[in-house]
Amino acid sequence: MNDNLYTLLYAAVVCFVCSFLLSLFAMGLKPAQERAAQLDLNRKLLAVMGLYEEGMSDQRVEEVFKSRIQELVLDPSGKVLDTYKSFKEVPDKQRCELLEKGAATNAQDCKLSIYQRVENGNLLAMAIPLKGKGLWSTLYGYMALKPDAETVSGITFYKHAETPGLGAEISQEWFQKNFVNKKILDSEGQVYGVVVAKAKAENSGHPIEHSVDGISGATITANGVTRLIKHCAKIYDPYLSRFRKEE
Amino acid sequence: MALLKSLPKPLADPLVENNPITIQVLGICSALAVTVQLKQAVVMSCAVIFVIIGSNFILSLLRKGLPTRIRIIVEMCVIASLVILVDQVLRAYFFELSKQLSVFVGLIITNCIVLGRAEAFALSNSPGASILDGLGNGLGYSLVLCIVAVIREIFGSGTIWGYPLVIKMGEWMGLSKSLYEYGYENMGLMVLPPGAFIIIGLYIWAVNSIRGRQGE
User: Fold this and answer.
1) How many CB atoms lie within 10 A of CB B145?
2) Residue A33: its chain B contacts at CB < 8 A?
3) I want to staple B7 with a disulfide (CB 3.0 to 4.6 A). Which of A82, B12, B56, B153 is the partner?
């Protein structure tokens, strides 16, 4: 009996010490991790909006991002809210949930974020956030559009936990570069999105300007990508359509 | 060889004589996955060396009071904590690399070398000797990892530590066009896992035939 008690106590102490030390380290490293993740995201945003050069230093990324990219806060009807300087000022509860079936998607008072690249008063690109379910995890990314608000200039995924080698290929360059110059609107101006085909884009049954090559062994992740592009493009449509009318 | 003999035995032995990968054939899985580029292999090596030394040292300290029945559980607990710690540090300071290494850092937990050394050495030796044993085995693992990575990166991607070796070679030879334009091609096989299988196999064969095969 004494022996059992000792074993139990020993196990409890080991668990306690291990978890205590780990949480201590995790808390201590959190700010640095968040900074690293933000920097990585900014780098990717610059890339999709055509501002990234090979071998840019961390500092340079920060500088370029600060000086060339502006962040706007919108309401679901597409109105720009001047009261906020950046999306960070919007409390979590008031941010629109982009997930399908997300609670606040239709809420009138929720806020959306969008990045724009403006130079000398000319809009050169904008990037809308993407969020949706893949196979194992929620995929987070950005889709950049050209000033016509319908042609894709780049897509990126910065956070997900899909299967390495299969679904995780969505964060690879070969997959992402297929999206460039695809259209998110059909000929009638309705949101069509970009469909990730099951195999080759040509054989998907969708017009070629709306489809990209798929990833073998990652159909569910690919379907998730298809869904989330269409879904998020629809949420931002009221804002995006303003740029189309001006043409 | 003279240098090897002057080192303490627990440190020197695993480098060649009893190398965890070539002789004990442990930890092969990660050796296949993270040897596409030298940079990844070096970071992975550092992580493994840290984890082996840490787990050997801690478990050697605990060895006298450790209840035998929950021995493996405690070992895993210590190893897992160290690996998570490494993963968190990588995520904070080497974000890009930690994304490339993805699950393989976490898989150090199941790397047979770490648990194997804890069981075979740390539980029956003093903390000092255990640290040396951990360092030796870690270095033995790293040595193979880096050799394989160098071969795979040069032939698979034509670079070394990201440096465009093949392109520069053409410049050094005074050619006007790059070697690729003369028809040189990177070897696709080297980038894929089977490339690592073949290289590790050849390496084990080479080491065994030089040492003179010992009875199995």
Assistant:
1) 25
2) 88, 91-92, 95
3) B12
- Residue A198 burial class via C-beta count within 10 angstroms: exposed 0-12, middle 13-18, buried 19 and up: middle
A87-102 pLDDT, tens digit each:
887 887 778 888 776 5
Domain coordinates in residue numbering, chain B: 9-150+192-204
Q: Do A14 and B84 touch (CB under 8 A)?
A: no
Compute the distance between CA of residue A165 and CA of residue A175 in angstroms, rounded to an integer: 12
Instruction: Judge whether B216 is closer than 8 Å to chain A, CB to CB.
Output: no
Nearest CA to A241 out of A149, A153, A152 is that of: A149
> Which residue of chain B has the CA closest to A158?
B99
* B162 phi and psi angles, rounded to 5 deg: 80, -5
| Residue among A22, A36, A168 whose CB faces B81 most closely | A22
- Coarse DSSP helix, strand, coil percentages of chain B, rounded to the nearest 5 percent: 75, 0, 25
Percent of residues in chain A assigned helix, strand, coil, to nearest 5 = 45, 20, 35
Q: Which is nearest to A213 in space by CA: B197, A222, B32?
A: A222
